[in-house]
Specification:
With 173 residues, this protein is of the alpha+beta class. It has a seven-stranded mixed sheet with strand order 1-2-3-4-5-7-6, with helices on both faces. It has five helices and seven strands, in the order βαααβββαβαββ. The chain has a single domain, classed as Aminopeptidase, CATH 3.40.630. Helix 1 runs antiparallel to helix 2 and helix 1 crosses helix 3. Strand 3 and strand 4 form a beta hairpin. Helix content is 35%, strand content 32%.
Length: 173
């Protein structure tokens, strides 16, 4: 594999994964904040995001019937996580979070997680997936654009008084 791509296994998250998945979430949230967000996103906002992604909170989220939760695993190590939910029978899905550990980024793992999310939502009959991101999270925005998402709205001083971009992907259903 000379191109640096890793063939990670993307699968449903299980209860046994929540401890490791929470550590991945923590690492990615902290790294993203340090690299891209700290000048615009308050530390207390980061702390809030960390607090809603503990193993206990992930276990609660896993029990939600409309939720979807995926992990990317390589050599039995969880290296990426994606989760979100489908809003009732509306056909609308929200991608709540997607991330890959920094040392595994730029190898196609985020793309594989996104493809799993899109396939799942399509199979569940969704017509649209939405997500929200910060304008400074350029690598994430690039992944979303390459996956077919388009900016749909720009909210000024929305979440923690920070600008937010809403991006959407319309599915073939």
């Amino acid at each position: 594999m000379g191109d640096g791509k890793i063939m990670a296994l993307v699968r449903d998250m299980e209860t046994k994964d929540v401890e490791k998945a929470s550590k991945v979430l923590y690492s990615v949230l902290l790294e993203t904040w340090e690299r891209y967000e700290k000048d615009v996103y308050p530390r207390r906002a980061l702390d809030f995001e960390i607090s809603v992604n503990t193993p206990e909170k992930l276990t609660e989220k896993l029990s939600e019937s409309q939720g979807f939760f995926f992990v990317a695993e390589e050599d039995e190590t969880i290296v990426g996580v994606a989760y979100g939910n489908i809003v009732g029978e509306s056909g609308l899905a929200t991608l709540g979070w997607i991330g890959v550990l920094p040392k595994y980024q730029h190898r196609g793992i985020g793309k594989a997680l996104m493809q799993k999310v899109i396939k799942h939502c399509t199979e569940k009959g969704c017509h649209k997936i939405i997500l929200y991101t910060l304008p400074v999270d350029v690598p994430a925005i690039n992944l979303y654009l390459k996956s077919g998402f388009v900016p749909e709205a720009y909210f000024h001083k929305e979440w923690w008084k920070v600008d937010i971009i809403k991006m959407s992907l319309w599915l073939e259903n």
